[in-house]
Specification:
Pfam families: DUF2062. The protein is mainly α. Helices cover about 75% and strands about 0% of the residues. It has one domain. The longest helix has about 45 residues.
Length: about 200
């Protein structure tokens, strides 16, 4: 194989790399940012795709974030690749914050009061082992899904604006640089072909 490691990673090392990248999350985020900027689409399509991915990351529907982001990108006329990249908003560092805030906000929106939130006792392992979605929906998924709507809307708008203006500036600068290079090549050809 062409790009195989010489020394095979152990199971513990692979697990660590799955949770925490080797070169850090900052480098991974910079890479994804550059991938978004270099997509070949309109600024609106790219921004709508990223916003769709961010919105999907707020939902508690783990495993369906890509599907949901693609559906939202289709509705918003967004780029599907940008939607997939936008789901990186939900990662091991942000999921605890996302889940805690959407759970709490969902209970506030549903007006369940502070007492019920503090006394919710759920045996999650038992519910998941039996896959009892009816009992999982009411105490956990429903408040998280409803609580995800306001922050998803706000962060979707924020990331749409940030991505739209960044992509538009990048594409303008790129067109200008390419035009300058084409002009320089044309002038070099014309001077090379001119008689002495």
């Amino acid at each position: 194989m062409l790009f195989r490691r010489r020394k095979k990673l152990s199971l513990l090392e692979r697990l660590r790399l799955f949770v925490w990248p080797q070169k850090s999350f900052a480098r991974s985020m910079r890479y994804l940012g550059k991938r978004v900027l270099r997509l070949n689409a309109t600024p609106h399509a790219i921004a709508a795709g990223v916003a769709a991915g961010v919105i999907a990351s707020w939902t508690p529907l783990i495993g369906f974030h890509f599907v949901l982001s693609f559906a939202l990108a289709y509705v918003f006329a967004g780029n599907m690749i940008a939607a997939g990249i936008g789901t990186a908003f939900g990662n091991p560092l942000t999921f605890p914050f996302i889940w805690a805030s959407t759970f709490k906000l969902g209970h506030i929106i549903l007006d369940r009061g502070k007492q019920e939130v503090e006394h919710v006792s759920i045996n999650l392992g038992d519910l998941l082992s039996r896959i009892d979605w009816a009992h999982l929906w009411q105490p956990i998924l429903k408040p998280m899904l409803i609580g995800s709507i306001p922050p998803a809307f706000v962060s979707g708008l924020f990331f749409y604006g940030l991505t739209f203006y960044s992509v538009r500036a990048f594409q303008k600068r790129r067109k200008r640089v390419l035009a300058e290079k084409a002009e320089a090549r044309a002038s070099a050809r014309s001077t090379a072909g001119a008689p002495l």
